[in-house]
Amino acid sequence: QVHLVESGGGLVQAGASLRLSCAASGRPFGWYAMGWFRQTPGKEREFVAAVSRSGGRTSYADSVKGRFTISRDNAENTVYLQMNNLKPEDTAVYYCAAHELYSDYVPSTDFGSWGQGTQVTVSS
Q1: pLDDT, tens only, 73-112
Q2: Are the C-beta atoms of 25 and 77 separated by less than 8 Å?
Q3: Residues 6+ apart with CB under 8 A from 33
Q4: CA distances from 37 to 22, 29, 75, 124 (A)
């Protein structure tokens, strides 16, 4: 499995921006579509965004469209989540995930590798 380490979480006020990073190692990064998910206590983990192996295709949850941008740097083995205009309801632990694929598809489920998560807290 690919090893994933997230960073960039923190405490911000509503309207602020944060950029999360996820560094991958252990397997060829280009084999994997990458995604971001989030979870709050008592709720199931929910899909936030995903990017294809090449970076050319992306998908977003409706709740973050227009505010969040997922991107990847295959030379640096890193995927990013730029979060703008943050809202208190964005508060969650954010997880990076990897999905090994043979095509340039953008999945939203069945991710097989996960990071440890990074906390994002947005105050009102």
Answers
A1: 999 999 999 999 999 999 999 999 999 999 888 988 899 9
A2: yes
A3: 50, 51, 52, 53, 98, 99, 101, 105, 106, 107
A4: 12, 18, 23, 22
Between β-strands 10-13 and 118-123, what pairing exists: parallel, antiparallel or unpaired? parallel
Cβ-proximal residues to 15 (8 Å cutoff; 6+ apart), any chain = 85, 86
pLDDT digits (tens, 9 = 90+) for 20-70: 999 999 999 999 999 999 999 999 999 999 999 999 999 999 999 999 999
Distances from the Cα of 48 to the Cαs of 1, 94, 107, 109, 118, in angstroms?
Answer: 22, 9, 11, 11, 14
